[in-house]
Amino acid sequence: MIAGIDSFLVDYKILTMDKKEIWIECMGKKISFAGSPSMILCVHDISERKRAEAEIQEAKERFELFFNTTPNAALITRMTDGLMTEVNEAFTALTGFSREEILGKTSSDLKIWVHPEECRKFVDEIRTKGFCDNFEADFWQKDGSRIIGNISGKTISLQGIVHIVSITFDITEARRMKEALRMANSKLQLLSGITRHDIINQTIVVDSYGSLLKKTIQDNQAGLDYLTRIAKASKKIQQTIRFTKDYQELGMNDPLWQDISKIAHMAAVDLLPESVDLVISSENHEIFADPMLMLAF
User: How do beta strands 131-140 and 146-158 pair?
Assistant: First the structure.
């Protein structure tokens, strides 16, 4: 101020009379007072503002730490025009594009989405709800390879401008393994169906010859008894084989959450005699299992 700089502004800490530290903002101006060079000062307590700024800075540093160190591909795009404003190393590793090739471009410029309409659907859901979770889509890498990603996004405000922060998981291998498992189960299902059909056909043949044989040994009680046992065994085989058809569906569908109590009661309806009461103490408990879980009970 002695140098004559008008409206000089400075922030600094002071101690109050009770030894409490506070931040103040001080503005000064050189003036003439009573014929002497003087300074007029305006002092304002900005402690709350400083605390708020510190909290914002801390939150910003935590966000940047997460963004840069997460092993998943992270991307920030501007909502208004879709320009990509920030990426982490995992994103460049996943896509094959360098940071310089990505920043300032849109996903359309780099042709990252295999189906652009999926991108629009993803963004539209975020516009409507403010977030979008577990959106599966196909993406192109720089070298032309095709991958499957699980992407989640959420809106944030950066310097007053709405952006989308998205995290993408590469689920290509998981999807391939799932498809391979589905194909293997499909082949096993086909083989099981053919085998089951053949066995039932043979038991029908046994039953037919048994009926013919029964007519020829009407006077042989021991033989008739043996035929009766053979017929019962054949029927049991047919029941067992038909029962395996239910298990043929195991592993063909995704697991889901199921209420243990309800499943057990449903399983018991056709099995327990009327003289037996079923009591289940586990209420409101669910298990994540194959849709065929009831067969276990």
Answer: antiparallel
Cα–Cα distance measured from residue 250 to residue 244, given in angstroms and rounded to the nearest whole number? 10
CATH class of the domain whose range is 70-170:
alpha beta
3-state secondary structure of 91: helix
Local structure of residue 111 (DSSP, 8 states): T
- pLDDT value at 31 more than 90: no
Instruction: Decide if 103 contacts 84 (C-beta within 8 A).
Output: yes
Give the residue extent of every domain in the chain: 8-47, 70-170, 172-250, 253-297
How far apart are alpha carbons 243 and 248 in whole angstroms?
9
Query: Which structure tokens are listed for 26?
Result: 């001080």
pTM of full prediction above 0.70: no
Q: Is the pLDDT of residue 6 over 70?
A: no
Residue 107: closest CA among 168, 24, 171: 168
Q: What is the pLDDT of residues 102-143, one digit of tens each?
A: 999 999 999 999 999 999 999 999 999 999 999 999 999 999
Q: How many CB atoms lie within 10 A of CB 25?
A: 15
Q: Are 197 and 204 in contact (CB under 8 A)?
A: no
Q: Residues 6 or more apart from 34 whose CB is under 8 A from it?
A: none
Q: What is the pLDDT of residues 54-85, one digit of tens each?
A: 887 887 788 888 888 888 999 999 999 999 99
